[in-house]
Amino acid sequence: MKIGILESGHLSDTLKAKYGGYPDLYQRLVAPHLPEATFFAVSVIDGEVAESPHQADGWIISGSRHSVYENEPWISHLEDFLRACMGEGVPVVGICFGHQILAQAMGGRVENSASGWGLGMHEYQLLDHPDWLVIKADSFTVPTIHQDQVVKAPEGTHLLATSDFCPIAGLIYGNPEAPKAFTIQPHPELSAAFVSDISEERLRHIVPPETMQPALKSLSKPGDQIAWGKSIASFFRQVIG
Fold it and tell me: Is 96 a catalytic residue?
């Protein structure tokens, strides 16, 4: 099994030295639970183009500091590629920016939310529990970093996760038990330490203190990142076979 990671963003040299780049984050999340898979990255943000949807058996779309509605050629090309994946039945998992770009590519809408910044450990309600989803509780908690949100879901999707802050926090594309794709807004690939470091490096001067302070305090809460790594592995194993 080959899993391709569509690298849609860069981390600073300081963060990369400590945590690796985006491909490293996603491989660490999923690989321990999918030992039969090999992973490779396509740096779409740097203009790299995948050979075809079938270059991989499944794809993960990474997070990014960019907005999906920016007028950048690589974003348009990525949308075209994702529509091809969906049309040819190659499974896709999207995280944060990945959640938003697939929704936009398939006819949904993404906006800079009037709710402001989502930051820290957030709790989300699960509205469906397909077999491939390891989490059986009615809610989960994982790190969150975003301003943009999906505000209109594409036709043919099912709402997987929601919160008061982010109503469309997770989507399933197609039959929930054998979907073409699923995406979530929060970041199961991130640790509390990473969120603390990127908040200090990049966000402290742009996120209001009344948001930043409780967000940093929330990082002491336990999260469900491992369960999401297992769920992504389970999704690929079930859909790819």
Answer: yes
pTM of the model: 0.96
Judge whether 189 counts as a catalytic residue. Answer: yes
Which one is catalytic: 96, 122, 146, 166? Answer: 96
Q: Which residues contact 197 (CB under 8 A, 6 or more apart)?
A: 14, 15, 18, 19
Q: Which CATH superfamily is domain 2-240 in?
A: Class I glutamine amidotransferase (GATase) domain (3.40.50.880)
pLDDT above 90 (res 204): no
201 is a catalytic site residue = no
**Does residue 241 carry a pLDDT above 90?**
no
Q: Which residue among 7, 122, 166, 189 is the active-site one?
A: 189
pLDDT (tens digit, 9 = 90+) per residue, 102-115? 999 999 999 999 88
Give the mean pLDDT of 191-197: 95
